[in-house]
Amino acid sequence: MKIAARTQVGIIGAGPSGLLLARLLTQRGIDVVVLERRSRDYVEGRIRAGVLEQGSAAVLDSAGAAERMRTDGVEHDGVQIAFDGRIERIDLQRYARMPVIVYGQTEVTKDLYQLNRLDDISIHYEVQASGVTGLDEGAARIHYQEAGRKLELVCDFVAGCDGYHGVSRQSIPADVLRTYEKTYPFGWLGVLSNTRPASPELIYTNHERGFALCSQRSATVSRNYIQVATDDSVETWSDTAFWDELRRRVPAEVADTLQTGPSIEKSIAPLRSFIAEPLRYGRLFLVGDSGHIVPPTGAKGLNLAVSDTAMLASALKAYYADGDAQGIDRYSTVALKRVWQAQRFSWWFTMATHRLADSVFDQRMQIVDLDYFTGTEAGRTSIAENYVGLPIEDPVTGHSLP
Ligand code: APR
Ligand code: PHB
User: pTM of the predicted model, to two decimals?
Assistant: First the structure.
């Protein structure tokens, strides 16, 4: 078999985790190669969530990747939760002393790609990794196919940034890997449209017909979601049916001024909570969606991908600069702690806002839960500090990153 190349860190996947890791490691003089199964156009066309925590923004700053986010992104000082016929606002500045930044993940991916291109980072698109070996040997090998040829990338470490459906997690022996999973009996139908956002701030709505979220990409582009059945398909939801249903669920004052229009993109995503442990096996590290999935309520997916990546970059930097292996040894434990916290918040926010079953008792419990959390100092502080994001711990120093 032909040995294609050797690098220090082989990165599988060019989503936000892979592209950001490539940039952070290159900045520190560490050699990387990125292998991505899809085309660049496909990766950059995927529509994903759009809320960045302050910590994620700071990591992007440190990567030199925040220029467009700082000009085009919009700081939101509050977030709104509607239930039981009323709207409660969580003042993020007051309760967590920071805003969130509304900026599309699709744009983050484009910004990172442009930087990596300037850095001359080797990113191979349309290259499928089939497996990883040598994880407990002297060097790891990523096996992949490029233009019909079978090749290998030999590396010190492999970063599994290949998402939930990737191959890297499967390379961890079955007797080592533990997984924890919860699937929710509903999905989100999302519609992107060239319409004015329903409200200046995001509104998460608990309604008896089901959850709804009014989000946005800019002053003229909206991203709205409604809870639908898992077996619904986009074909069954015309644009008109979507807007009618959204209008029924959102608070009356929002419905009255809702601007509707044709969808630019429409898709249904299932909701899932998933965590793999450990996030490190020998020379392999799982980063972002390859190690964990959160339901989108709270928009933690990208933010966890960024915090994992920042932690791993710091750990690898200490290893290559000083031969200090403490960070890489602590990566899994330190990253998982934050992942479980974000998982808890995303799970709580999902369970409190979605139509779960027909039990009237459970519906009353949701209302009293939201009433308590939005109506007390302790509750508002809890929502706010989780929504803006918990600190990112450096596995090397134990201090906050970046
Ligand atoms: N070989 C090469 N590339 C692969 C392979 C493979 N065998 N399997 C998957 N990939 C690629 C996918 O095509 C995808 O581009 O890995 C990439 C993984 O990217 P993401 O799924 O975006 O995962 P990540 O970078 O961790 O970002 C997590 O994305 O899904 C959202 O909500 C999630 O916001 C979070 C973020
Ligand atoms: C989005 O804008 O797409 C979005 C915002 C907040 C979420 C999820 C998605 O919680």
Answer: 0.97
